[in-house]
Amino acid sequence: MKIWQADFYRSPLQEVSGQVLWELLICDATRSFEYAATCPQSAANSSWVADQLQLAADEKLPDLIQVFRPQSLSLIQAAGRNLNINVEPTRRTLALKQWLQEKQYPLALDKPPPTPLPENLWGEEWRFATLQAGELVDVFAERLIPILSIPEFLKPINLGLASTLPIPGVVIYGGRRSLHLARWLEEARPVTLNYLAGAPDGLVLEAGLVDRWIVATFEDAEVVAAAKVYEQRKQQSQGLHFLLVQPDDSGMTYSGFWLLQVEK
């Protein structure tokens, strides 16, 4: 599959006349392919982007274009529809972000304050958990789980993690709402689940491109201590962690499982 990463946004550069420029940057995951083009703001539309995609492709258009910037998404999606190219919103555009950093272009995205999960979704209870890296994939890949997200690049073996390394995670017991919660999470597209100290402390789910959701808040000293261990283990596992949703603690059925990683 031919996959591109793309960004289309206002360039820090300007024409001699002072006119604002927009810049399209395209690369693949290894940056063995790179393409850049600029246009005046008055020409920054999906038709221009579609024309540039065809020029960049030379002969074969990509099967998928990945986009991390919300402001770029609608224009690139419209161009993709015109050319029958799928466009995926994702924060995992590491090669493109590296290129932008080298060009000293701003990468920071405006993120809204975290929002509590809808009350009709929340489960009955939750806890921190760990699984050995060597067991993490096998335990869940072999089970019939309605929603299962184990990206190849996040498998512990592909990150070079020792099989005995404890991988931290969070388990939510959803009761009757378990599958409903898992389906909502699938649509939200989880990225990483972080402990944030505050008043009170909490767990915040980063999802989609810029969405943030409050999964839980707590003040209990033992839970705070467990949360700090959870973050320490994430540092030891290259940011790898997991989220598991199941109806109860029987271990008989699971509703959803996601391998996650701290954003790079």
Task: Give an account of the 3D structure.
The chain is of the alpha/beta class. The chain has 2 domains: 3-102, Nucleotidyltransferase, domain 5, CATH 3.30.420.10; 115-261, no CATH class. The protein is 27% helix and 34% strand. The strands form 3 sheets. A 5-stranded mixed β-sheet has the order 3-2-1-4-5, with helices on one face. The protein has a 5-stranded mixed β-sheet with strand order 7-9-13-14-8, with helices on both faces. The radius of gyration is 21 Å and the shape is elongated.
Rg, Cα atoms, Å = 21 Å
Low-pLDDT segments, ≥5 res:
none
Task: Give the overall shape, derived from the CA principal axes.
Answer: elongated
> Assembly type of the shown chains?
single chain
H/I helix tally? 6
The biggest sheet amounts to:
5 strands, mixed
Q: Give the proportion of residues in helices.
A: 25-40%
Into how many domains do the coordinates divide? 2
* Measured distance between first and last alpha carbons: 24 Å
- Helix/strand order: EEEHEHEHEEHEEHEEEHEE
Q: What percentage of the residues does DSSP assign to strands (E)?
A: 25-35%
Number of strands: 14
InterPro entries: Tab2-like, Tab2-like_C, Tab2-like_N
Protein name: DUF1092 domain-containing protein
Domain RNA-binding protein Tab2-like N-terminal: 3-103
GO molecular function, one term: RNA binding
